[in-house]
Amino acid sequence: MAKKEDDKGTNPGLNTPLLDQLEGGPWPSFVSDLKQWSETKPQVAQLLNQLEESYENRWNYWTGTVLNVSGYGGGVIARLSDKAEKYPDLAEFHTIRVIPPPGFVYSTERLRNLADICEKHGAGILQLHGLTGDALALGFDNESTFAAAEELMANGWDLGGSGAALRSLQCCVGQARCEMACFDTMKTTRFLTNHYIDFLHRPEFMYKFKIKISGCANDCANAMIGSDMPIMGTWRGPMQIDQEKVAEYIEEKGIEHVIDNVITRCPTRCISVKGKQLLVDDENCVRCMHCINVMHKALKPGKDQGVTICLGAKRTLKIGDTMSSVIVPFLKLDSEKDFENLTDLIDRMWEFWNDNGMDHERIGEFIARVGLGTFLEGCGIEPDPRMVQSTRTSPYINFEELAPGNFEGERTQQPKAWNREPETRESTS
Amino acid sequence: MSIEVNGKVIEIDEEGYLVDREDWSEDVSEAIANRDGIDLKDEHMGLVDYFRDYYEEHQVHPTMHVLVQRLGGKIGEKFHEHKEYEKFLYMLFPTDPVSELCKLAGLPKPLPSEHDG
């Protein structure tokens, strides 16, 4: 929306010198939008005023509370304002999470429908989309939350996950709009949402669990850093190379361009150029997608496509931020049987995590605590050398259990640390 | 706000939680349940007793996780089938089983869980 200079300060109740600074610059500003909107909705003016006060005092005036729509254990993020005497319309200012369609692809009609419902009952502010992957509708009080939820459900929307539940799934557009996608992300999202809808609506876990689904390693859904269980598209076997298109590309851009932008940027140095042909050592390819992104006409992901399932990304809580690491290197995801395998795997992992996890422990922290070996054993997954968190920095390996014994046969001397008996103190009595 | 039980006036907050937890008795539970439109049966009261015992032992109310884990136990072959017990709880207390049970058992109101991110 273009910024209109005359909109500034049209609402006499607004006094926001600090927020006004966010209107400067060529980019669109949420302050301008909300100021314009505050003429229709008085609570938005109060919202801006409270935010201004927050900026001034460097203090947050929201308090969380619990509010649930009947039959649901989550989906409403209830917030009360501490400044309710000053801003009466903010006394209850709840947010409703709505499950978006897979890939965030709306028809304009549906989006208008969503906007109308939110405007009718709440402050009419939509946040598309939060990092949880929900469409967030802001500004409902207790009664209007229930009314809005009823109307949303009547119109075919559903509330998303919140609290210690499975959160709304999120995916990239996948095969619907993208040539890189290695599997049908939207179908997978829809399938998993429907299959686990109870886990989404009724929190029961230790802590949240997020699944995000990306069609390829370009990871447009931010799965690898932003979800407990990223499902990433990948392929096995050789990638597809169209040598004619390679030759065309080299003629057009020059061989130096290919060397500088493709060959030298391959992380495993598995690609080389010979004349006007590309040679790929597929065994060493790590499917990073870089060469395919640069030469997208000539190169394509391989034909035998499937998914890699990773586990464990999270932000800081019990341990520091982590990224996901591989738990299933390759899984086909085409037939119904494959989807059954996927849900079976998720079931086993949830069961082990849920039975043994501690309060507020996400699955990545759980694995860090009990160890990957224990986790794999508990879930019945075979260990695989590809399950690495990071590559090793030291080439020396100390295999205690594999070390040869002394020449006599038995090992006579154990390392001191191993040999030491735990100290026991005898009681004096 | 207050309710009258057996001729005694008992203070509750606007959502129905007891102000003084010492006031609790089964009749008080019933009065609060009536207020929320719940018809108390043996299943309800069993859970209320479990909540009170658990709170006495742990000084914290049971979470949904504890209920499903300990009371529900293992149902069916697959993990997602154990949701049946939670469905049963939601059948008894459609709004929010844990908060409602805390209310009926005279425990403090549950704190909001982390909704962020």
Detailed description of the structure:
The complex is a heterodimer of chains A (429) and B (117). By secondary structure, chain A is of the alpha+beta class. In chain A, 33% of the residues lie in helices and 15% in strands. In chain A, the strands form 4 sheets. Chain A has a 5-stranded antiparallel beta sheet. A 5-stranded mixed beta sheet of chain A has the order 6-7-8-13-14. In chain A, α8 links the parallel β7 (211-214) and β8. In chain A, α2 (30-38) crosses α3 (42-57) and α9 crosses α10. The radius of gyration of chain A is 27 Å and the shape is globular. The termini of chain A are far apart. With 117 residues, chain B is mainly alpha-helical. Chain B has one domain. Chain B contains 5 helices and 2 strands; from the N terminus they run ββααααα. A two-stranded antiparallel sheet of chain B has the order 1-2. In chain B, a hairpin with a 2-residue loop joins β1 and β2. In chain B, α3 (64-72) packs across α4 (83-92). The termini of chain B are far apart. The mean pLDDT of chain B is 85. Classes of the chains: A alpha+beta (429), B mainly alpha (117). The A-B interface holds A 64-66, 68, 70-71, 73-74, 77-78, 131-132, 162-164, 195-196, 198-199, 202-208, 315, 343-344, 347-348, 350-351, 354-355, 359-360 and B 63-65, 68-69, 78-80, 83, 86-87, 90, 94-96, 99, 109-110, 112-115, 117.
Rounded to an integer in angstroms, the radius of gyration calculated over CA atoms of chain A is 27 Å
Q: Which strands sit side by side, in order, in the main sheet of chain B? A: 1-2
Could you name the CATH class of the largest domain in chain A? Alpha Beta
**Low confidence ranges of chain A:** 1-9
Number of domains of chain A: 4
